[in-house]
Design goal:
Arylsulfatase, C-terminal domain; 13 helices
C-alpha cells in the first residue's frame, strides 16, 4: 500500500511539473512612440519591419487598437493595472506610480510565473512584483545608458535597443529557473525623442526623401484653440537637440521644441559626451557634413520646413530599424530554445505618434496618429496565422488578456476586456462599439496640449477640450480619415452629436470617471 501511495505521489508531482512547464510564457515587447504607420504590416510607405510583421503574419494584427491616455507614464500604468488613469492614480508624467496596488505581473508572480521588467519603466517608483528588473533612468539614454538593476545603478556600454534585448535574452537564458513559466517585459526606449540612431543605421534612407503627409501645412481652420495653440510643430524643433545640427553659434538656434518658455534650449551635448571614441567618430563623420551643408545652403521658408522634416523622420525611422532587428534576435532566440510556440508574443507601443500629420511630432491628442497603436500578437495554440481584427482593442485590455492566457481569472475590478474572444477570427459577439479617452497634462509639462476627453466609435469621434477653454470637435472618420474638418456645430450633425454625447456620458459612468471638467 505504501509503495502504491509512493508511486501515486511521484505521478502527481510529475503531472504538476508538466502543468507548470506547459503553461504559456509571455513576452511583451513595447516601444515608445512607435506610430502605427511606421510598421510595414500596416503601411509600407515609410519603412519595412519584417520581424515585427512576422508576429502579426503568424498571429493576429489589430487594426483598431488604441490607448486611453496618450502619454508615456500613464500608458504604462494602464498596462500594468488594467485600469484607467483616474483609477490607478497616474494621470500625467508628474505622477508617481503607487507600486502597492494590484498589477497583473504581481498576480502572475503569485501564480508561479517568473516575472522580469527590462528597459524603459518611467513610473518614478521602483518596479514591484518582478523577480528581476533592470530599467533605464527616466527616459534613458540611447548610447551607453545608466540602468538601475535591482537597485544598483550600472552604466551599460553600447546602444540601448541592443542592450535591452541582450539583457532580456540573458535573463531568459541565465536568470529564470528552467521549467518555470515566465512573463518578461522588453520595453525599448526607441523611438522616443530625440531619435539618436545606432551608428550601424546612419546610412538608411539616404537614397530617398520620405514623403511628407498631405496635412503637414495644416492651418487648423475650423478646429479648436487646442489645435492652434499647441507647441509641437516639426518646424519648431530644436536644431541641435532634435535635428543634430552642429551650431556655429548658440544664437543660431531657432526652435521652441515643445516649451513655450524663455528657458535655454535642450542640449544634445550631455548625450554626446557619453559616446566612446568609436561612437563619436561615427557620429561626427555622419552629422558634421550635414551641418556643413545646412550652413552652406542656408534653406529658408518651405525648403527649411522640408529639411527639418527629413532630418526628423529619417532618424526616427532609423531608430525603428534597430528595434526591428532586435525583435528578430529575440524571436530567433525563442525559436532556437524551443520556446516560440508556447509563448504569447505581444508587440505594441505605449502610444502612437505624429509623423508630420498636421505639421506635428509628439502625441497627447486624441487624433488618430496619437491615439492608435500597433498591436500584433503571436500564439499558435490560440491564434491562427493571418488573423486580422477590426474590433476596438485598448491598452486597458492587456492585463486581463495576459492573465487569461496564463489560466488566471482577471480580477473583477480590472476595467479592460480579455482579447481572447477575438483570437479565433478577429470578431466576437457583443464586443465594444466605442472607446473612451482622457488626457490630463496641461498646462504643465511639454507641448501645451489642452486637457480633453472623448469618445470614438467605428465611424465618429467626439472630443471635448476643457479647463481654460470649452470647445468640441466632431470628425467623420469614414469621410475624413485625416481629421481635417470639424463638423461640430453643423445642424445636420446635431443628432449624431446627441447620440455621441449620450455614449460619452455612459462610458464615463461605466469607468467611474468623475475627473472631467476639473477646474485649474
Amino acid at each position: 500500500m505504501a509503495i502504491r501511495i509512493f508511486f501515486i505521489l511521484i505521478l502527481s508531482g510529475t503531472a504538476t511539473l508538466f502543468a507548470q512547464t506547459t503553461r504559456p510564457n509571455i513576452v511583451f515587447i513595447m516601444t515608445d512612440d512607435h506610430a502605427r504607420r511606421a510598421v510595414s504590416a500596416y503601411d509600407t510607405a515609410l519603412i519595412r519591419t519584417p520581424n515585427i510583421d512576422r508576429i502579426g503574419r503568424e498571429g493576429i494584427i489589430f487594426h483598431n487598437a488604441f490607448v486611453t491616455n496618450s502619454i508615456c507614464g500613464p500608458s504604462r500604468a494602464v498596462l500594468l493595472t488594467g485600469k484607467y488613469s483616474h483609477i490607478n492614480g497616474f494621470r500625467d508624467n508628474r505622477s508617481r506610480f503607487d507600486g502597492s496596488q494590484q498589477t497583473f505581473p504581481k498576480i502572475l508572480h503569485a501564480e508561479g510565473y517568473y516575472t522580469a521588467m527590462i528597459g524603459k519603466w518611467h513610473l518614478v517608483s521602483e518596479p514591484v512584483g518582478f523577480d528581476y528588473w533592470n530599467v533605464l533612468i527616466d527616459q534613458g539614454e540611447y548610447y551607453n545608458p545608466d540602468m538601475i538593476e535591482m537597485g544598483d545603478t550600472i552604466r551599460r556600454e553600447g546602444y540601448a535597443t541592443t542592450i535591452i534585448t541582450d539583457l532580456a535574452i540573458e535573463t531568459l537564458e541565465k536568470r529564470r529557473p528552467q521549467g518555470q513559466p515566465f512573463c518578461i517585459f522588453v520595453h525599448q526606449k526607441a523611438p522616443h525623442r530625440n531619435w539618436m540612431p545606432d551608428t550601424t543605421h546612419f546610412d538608411l534612407f539616404n537614397d530617398r526623401d520620405v514623403p511628407m503627409p498631405s496635412s503637414f501645412y495644416d492651418d487648423y481652420v475650423g478646429r479648436s484653440r487646442a489645435a492652434r495653440e499647441q507647441d509641437m510643430r516639426v518646424e519648431d524643433m530644436w536644431l541641435g537637440y532634435d535635428l543634430k545640427l552642429f551650431l556655429n553659434e548658440e544664437s543660431d538656434e531657432t526652435g521652441t521644441g515643445g516649451k513655450k518658455t524663455t528657458d535655454r534650449p535642450l542640449r544634445i551635448e550631455p548625450s554626446l559626451q557619453r559616446l566612446n571614441a568609436a561612437q563619436r567618430k561615427s557620429w561626427d563623420g555622419y552629422y558634421r557634413p550635414i551641418s556643413e551643408a545646412f550652413y552652406r545652403e542656408h534653406p529658408e521658408g518651405t525648403a527649411l520646413s522640408k529639411w527639418k522634416y527629413q532630418r526628423y523622420i529619417k532618424d526616427y525611422l532609423r531608430c525603428i530599424a534597430s528595434v526591428d532587428d532586435n525583435v528578430g534576435r529575440l524571436l530567433a532566440y525563442l525559436e532556437q530554445k524551443g520556446l516560440l510556440d508556447n509563448t504569447i508574443i505581444v508587440y505594441t507601443s505605449d502610444q502612437g505618434f505624429f509623423l508630420g500629420e498636421h505639421g506635428w511630432y509628439d502625441k497627447r491628442f486624441m487624433y488618430e496618429p496619437s491615439l492608435a497603436i500597433p498591436l500584433l500578437m503571436r500564439f499558435p495554440p490560440k491564434i491562427p496565422a493571418g488573423t486580422v481584427s477590426d474590433a476596438i482593442a485598448l491598452n486597458l485590455d492587456f492585463a486581463p488578456t495576459l492573465l487569461q492566457v496564463a489560466g488566471v481569472a482577471p480580477p473583477a475590478d480590472m476595467q479592460g476586456k480579455s482579447l481572447i474572444p477575438l483570437f479565433r477570427n478577429g470578431k466576437a459577439k457583443g464586443w465594444r462599439k466605442s472607446m473612451y479617452y482622457h488626457y490630463y497634462e496641461y498646462p504643465y509639462g511639454w507641448h501645451y496640449v489642452k486637457k480633453h476627453y472623448g469618445v470614438r466609435t467605428g465611424r465618429y469621434k467626439l472630443i471635448h477640450f476643457y479647463n481654460d477653454n470649452d470647445e468640441w470637435e466632431l470628425y467623420d472618420l469614414k469621410r475624413d480619415a485625416g481629421e481635417m474638418h470639424n463638423l461640430y456645430g453643423q445642424p445636420k450633425y446635431d443628432k449624431t452629436v446627441k447620440k455621441l454625447r449620450k455614449e460619452l456620458m455612459r462610458l464615463q459612468a461605466t469607468y467611474g470617471d468623475t475627473t472631467a471638467e476639473e477646474k485649474p
